[in-house]
Design brief:
transferase, Diacylglycerol_kinase_cat_dom, zinc, 15 helices, about 575 residues, nucleotide-binding, six-stranded antiparallel sheet, about 30% helix, globular, transmembrane helix
Length: about 575
């Protein structure tokens, strides 16, 4: 053992140095590569954003196209890249600049002011035609070959095969296709611009050239509604309509967007609101401002595409309980064209705090759906408080309803709103009403409440007339607690029907109580709440979307009429 050679101290240090060096390389090299890749990615993103900002196209990034897609410039198959949500162009990242130079996007207004109002040629784009589209010449399916092929007009959405495309078709006038009665043609806006320069305002004469059925549609979408589904809907509507008709209300307030109605013939415009009941109320408030400004003849009729959680107003108007992309956007536009005009009562809710009758201005709200005090308002208040803290966690309609269920179950145990009848006084049209031992009072303007429950008609052998939203009457009901609310929603119980009235007055004598107007809750101290009729709103009712409750309620009403 003594004769064995021991390694010199310098050799051991040298081996340890190699080990440390290789360890540092194995740790730092991946870090350096990751940093370099992220730096390059950020540079590419800045470069893309610069192109997007300067471009006339409405470019949007996508990590994965939903169908086989080919670059409109290099004709190569692409999995990710950019697409224009106005004209539908799809390009690879490296072809963005070339696409900007080679292809023109949709024209909001025509550059050639001398062009006739009804004379506009097709605007053809090659490739990436919609699935199940057919050639206008040979009537065969387009886009079946695995390459960049066939053409689509970005205005009328007609498609044609490469081999069927002729010079006569290239120069043919575009009739704007199926939705010509909803589209504002670029030539119309050009003519309007010229008329305003000449100080002329006879828009009806100009619109007469577009036909009697022309009823242009304005899209007001809330991009934050429906798990951010509104952002995708904005792009789909821009492709089918003139982009100038499509607005994101989070960027352009409704009052500004609705000024487009003043450039259209009187009583001709329609509006499609894509969002929850809160977004609809925001738009209707903006329409009321138009009345104040003396623009009553330009007020549009309003349709709803429900993207919120409850969607009771849209359900009442026949537009369903929620939209999740189950029908294509083109079918939504067809439904709007088939809808009928009706009126919706709007009510003023005035809340005057006790002891400040002359010193503090009363709070005022506008009610479209319902007002309530009690357990359902408490659930809405708790939900609203937690959503304000973490809005990203409340982007799912199913999750939101689960949270409501949690707070409803909690209130069943705690009963924070018990003995409401001892804390409030209720007057209907000036007459005081004696109340039983209730926990909540709900004042209804529409037929649905609580995410799809017909509260006033109820169930069982008792026949009650259908609640109407245009008769100037409010329906007032009471509930015995959160568990009673749950029973009503699953059709195991009826509410306590208090009565109908043109004016409702509620006096909260003591303590703090939760209140809500159309899903906007707050905690309220002693006060007087007065609900009176304010105005009417012009809405669109779609009879094609009926729930089982609608059918059963309609049949019940027919039975009552036959009995009479």
């Amino acid at each position: 053992m003594e004769g064995e050679k021991r390694p010199a101290p310098s050799e051991g240090l040298f081996a340890d140095g190699h080990l440390v060096l290789w360890t540092l390389c194995s740790v730092l090299l991946p870090v350096f590569i990751t940093f370099w890749c992220s730096l390059q990615r950020s540079r590419r993103q800045l470069h893309r954003r610069d192109i997007f900002r300067k471009s006339k196209h409405g470019w949007r990034d996508t990590d994965l196209f939903s169908q086989p897609t080919y670059c409109c410039v290099c004709a190569q198959h692409i999995l990710q890249g950019a697409f224009c949500d106005c004209c539908g162009l799809c390009v690879d990242e490296g072809c963005l600049k070339n696409a900007d130079r080679r292809f023109q996007c949709k024209e909001i207004m025509l550059k050639n002011e001398g062009r006739a109002l009804d004379a506009m040629p097709h605007h053809w784009i090659r490739g990436n035609v919609p699935l199940c589209s057919y050639c206008v010449v040979c009537k065969q399916q387009c886009g079946t070959q695995p390459k960049l092929c066939d053409y689509r007009c970005i205005w009328c959405q007609k498609t044609v095969h490469d081999e069927c495309m002729k010079n006569s078709l290239r120069n043919e006038e575009c009739d704007f296709g199926e939705f010509k009665n909803l589209i504002i043609p670029p030539s119309y806006l050009t003519s309007i611009n010229q008329m305003r320069k000449d100080k002329k305002t006879d828009y009806a004469l100009l619109a007469s050239k577009l036909g009697k059925q022309w009823a242009p549609l304005i899209i007001l979408a809330n991009s934050r509604s429906g798990t951010n589904m509104g952002e995708g809907l904005l792009g789909e509507f821009r492709i089918l309509l003139n982009p100038v008709q499509v607005f994101d209300v989070t960027k352009t307030p409704p009052i500004k967007a609705l000024q487009l109605c003043t450039l259209l013939p009187c009583y001709s415009a329609r509006v499609l609101v894509c969002g929850g009941d809160g977004t609809v109320g925001w738009v209707l408030d903006a329409i009321d401002e138009m009345k104040i400004k003396g623009q009553e003849e330009y007020i549009p009729q309003v349709a709803v595409l429900p993207l919120g959680t409850g969607n009771d107003l849209s359900n009442t108007l026949g537009w369903g309980t929620g939209y999740a992309g189950e029908i294509p956007v083109a079918q939504v536009l067809r439904n709007v064209m088939e809808a009928d005009g009706i009126k919706l009562d709007r009510w003023k809710v005035q809340v005057t705090n006790k002891g400040y009758y002359h010193l503090r201005k009363p709070k005022e709200f506008t009610m479209n759906n319902y007002f309530s005090v009690g357990p359902d308002a408490l659930m809405a208040l708790n939900f609203h408080a937690h959503r304000e803290k973490a809005p990203s966690l409340f982007s799912s309609r199913i999750l939101n309803k689960a949270v409501y269920l949690f707070y409803g179950t909690k209130d069943c145990l705690v009963q924070e709103c018990k003995d409401l009848n001892k804390k409030v006084e209720l007057e209907l049209d000036g007459e005081r009403v004696e109340l039983p031992n209730l926990e909540g009072i709900i004042v209804l303007n529409i037929g649905y409440w609580g995410g799809g429950c017909r509260l006033w008609e109820g169930m069982g052998d008792e026949t009650y007339p259908l609640a109407r939203h245009d008769d100037g009457l409010l329906e007032v009901v009471g509930v015995y607690g959160s568990f009673h609310c749950a029973q009503i929603q699953v059709k195991l119980a009826n509410p306590f029907r208090i009565g109908q009235a043109h004016t409702v007055r509620l006096i909260l004598k003591c303590s703090m109580m939760p209140m809500q107007v159309d899903g906007e809750p707050w905690a309220q101290g002693p006060c007087t709440v007065t609900i009176t009729h304010k105005t009417h709103a012009l809405m669109l009712y779609f009879s094609g979307e009926q729930t089982d409750d609608d059918i059963s309620s309609a049949s019940d009403q027919e039975d009552v009429r036959e009995a009479e």
